[in-house]
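User: Can you fold this complex?
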Amino acid sequence: MTYKHFIDSDICKGCGICVDACPKNVLEISDKLNNKGYFPAFQARPEDCIFCAICCTMCPDVAIAISEIEEKKAAQK
Amino acid sequence: MVMEAFPLAEKYRNPVMILGDGLIGQMMEPVEFPEHLKTEPSNKDDWATSGMDTRKSNQRNLVKTLYLDPAELNAHNLKLKAKYEQMEREEMRFEKYNFGGDYKALIVSYGTMSRVCRTAIDRLKEDGLEVAMLRPQFLFPFPRPAVFDAARKESCQAVFSIEMSMGQMLEDVDRSIAGKRPVYWYGKCGGEVPTPEEVMDEVRKIVK
Amino acid sequence: MGKTFQKPQCLADTITHYCPGCTHGIAHRLVAEVIDELGIRGRTVGIAPVGCAVLMYNYFTFDFQEAAHGRAPAMATGIKRVRPDLMVFTYQGDGDLASIGMGEIVHAANRGEKFTTIFINNAVYGMTGGQMAPTTMPDQRTTTSPFGRKTVNTGMPIKIAEMLATLETPAYITRQTLTRPKYVKKAKKAIKQAFTYQMENRCFSLVELISTCPTNWGMTPLDALTWAEEKMLPYFPLGVFKTPEGD
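Assistant: Here's the predicted assembly.
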């Protein structure tokens, strides 16, 4: 199954905690402003992401979500 | 009165303060409890934080007083004002004593002090001096129209605010009468209770 | 490998007013996740404190009340006693709980009121502009201790968890932190345990969370996390200080 890592760049306040927390060094702070005037985090190296959800655990603004994109299998955890 | 406080608090969703004095605090009197005095506010599902399951609703309830938007706060204050005005219309509570004749003076007094004044009024009556008393039972809403009407009676020469305080009610009485009659204060503090004689002397000093 | 992660149902879609990197957001999410997992959203009443979290009711989707400064435990006591079936929790900061609300929390804990308190300890008054709190660290600079907290005339930071744990009344008292993923997971477990004790109608429960306030500490969010770990954790050790009997 495949997962989709999604950062809502308009909720992100660019605190950088996820960038530091990511064990695979996937995330970086963008140089483009979002709606609120922050520089949000983005996936600079998405191919390295292992969907461990550690960034989600540390994000204070619940801006990161990981969802499945494949059709659901029966014995899905 | 204490038991009335609870339904009133429910009706208006407003705290009710019960005021007493030292004498009431240290005194015992037999009381009878009525059978049933429980009231449920009718629209409580609209505001009570009783849990969404209890209300079988998906709408959460929020009890708060913080309105950061000035327009919102203004609207909230107007709502509160309307509530206070409704109280003034519906909850003015007072007792009249010796209003029958052409009284020369009006006493406004509350609590323990009003009992003393009652004795004083009875004795003055024996001496041929008619004095009426208005006893506010609720200090808010203050019975301003009643005090005003009572003081404006042709025969009434003066109004006395007699209290066991340094005149906490004096301003209310003064404001109610709006300058139509002179207002005098007499009182004692610290647990001393003015005697009927003192009240009588005070009245006689002004009213001949 | 990998897992999904979604915003809990208990959290609203509102963007919080907290500063970037403020751990309030993590604490909010943990509480929301726990309430979701226990399936008690429909019978939970939260009590908002005074402090940054005063607006927390905007971020949750269940019943909420707002308390006067420090008086959340008194309000929670009232609600819980009238409706023992409701799940009541207070969420208080150190300015609220450890300072003006000290009397309330101590007596509520001593009476064994069966609600849950989430205590956010970030060593400073956040909302009002970074003044010194009872939990401010020695020599920590705040707007009211510009030369650092002098313990000579302001004493040492108060250890709320340890202090409440000295009470004889059964309770669940623990201190956790939100500075690292592993600690966040432990903190969630503690919050869940606290709510579970309440569900079982066992005891009062308090979870102290060592948090950060990057803005008022004058640090970047990452430096703040490091500072909390290096300066606060040695003085405020993590752990469970009290559990009800039989556990």
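The first helix of chain C runs from residue 24 to 38. Chain C is about 35% helix and 15% strand.
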